[in-house]
Amino acid sequence: MFGIHAFHPPSPPAAALEAGLARALAEYREWAGRLHAEAATGRRGILLNDAGARLVEAAAADGATLASVMPPQPTPEVRRLHPSGGDGAGELMLVQVTRFACGSLVVGHAMHHAVGDGFAISRFLVAWGQATRGVAIDPVPVHDRTSFFAPRDPPRVEFEHRGAEFKVPREKRKDDDARRSIGGGAGSGGDEVVVRHVRFSREFISELKSRASASSGAPRPYSTAQCLAAHLWRCVTRARGLGGGGGGRRATALHLAVNGRARMSRPPVPEAYTGNLVLWAHPATTARDLLAGALGRAAELVRAAAARVDDAYFRSFIDFASSGAVEEEGLVPPLADPEAAALGADVAVYCLLRVPFYDVDFGGGRQFFYTPGYYPAEGVVYILPPAPLGDGSVEAHVSLFSRAMETFEACCLSIEHHEALLDQ
């Protein structure tokens, strides 16, 4: 996971940041370890060898200020503010600290999801800030995996996890050619993937939620996350041109990250758990039905699919992942397939609304700006946490082929325009 965190002055000296990082790593040893596979079984894990993380300090050239180098829209230039991890680095955490003439400090990171999810990453960064300030690390990290994730005896694999959490690498699905010829993919004629951020105002979100609830008749209102995910799913599908003709019959799915800390109950997993506890919900329909139906229908698909990823589902996943089938069959997560040039008709949403990145403070006050690193992966959406002193707006980062982005931007920020396009 790539991230960029910006802080106003004053900023701590390099020695304090380095000492704080060392202290935080002593409490979060996974981030100082290395990926390891057992020779006998092939089972992967993290070797707690305290090999360390990589910390690089940089200074902006020619007296540049932060405002002068942060573009209004994401561009490849943003990559200069965080490590790439593309040099074969064995470290599970790479950090770059960049100082600017205005006194601002930017902390950019590349942190491996094999160690932790967005919540775990944010907890570590908060702990690093606490250690740099010389205060106690709170909450105390919870490393215990055995108590919370022990497989049942006998195991009960009650759900199908092949094709959901795992697939055979390099497996060619029957619809691969269709995926790549409709709405983008490897057959998109070399069209460039671009990243845009869109900002939804408090008023827009309120109207979106009101329309979703009114159109579905659901007894409970939909959340901000559910409504934004549904709206973005529909807008991306419309921008890809999948609403009519043969494209309307295409299946489309929304891959939505679900945090198990809020789902597992037997026993419950603490918020301070340090690992990766994300599985995926997969609401699906046809492109035509998604666009012809009301927003509330899409929001209900999102809510119902996320609700199915409950304690029973997580326990079934643990039993399956512990059965040896993953290693024996060489299964990998679907989104880790290196041959997948694009998501085709699907959309992947990482909702970070409740991830406490804005609690990070190295001594000069909490960060004033957060953004993911520049990651142009077609069909991938990040819904970002709102700034604590902001106006209630929410930003999303969206990656699409450039030819689809203009249509997406036109319909995304206007509910009326979006509905008008659907009627065409």
TrEMBL record:
Superkingdom, natural source: Eukaryota
GO terms for MF: acyltransferase activity, transferring groups other than amino-acyl groups
- Record key words, sorted: Acyltransferase, Transferase
Feature: compositional bias, Basic and acidic residues: 169-180
Q: Where is this region: Disordered?
A: 169-190
InterPro entries, per the entry? CAT-like_dom_sf (IPR023213), Plant_Fungal_Acyltransferase (IPR050317)
Keyword check for Transferase, yes or no. Answer: yes
Membership in a protein family: Belongs to the plant acyltransferase family.
Q: What is this protein called?
A: Uncharacterized protein
Name the species this protein comes from.
Panicum virgatum (Blackwell switchgrass)
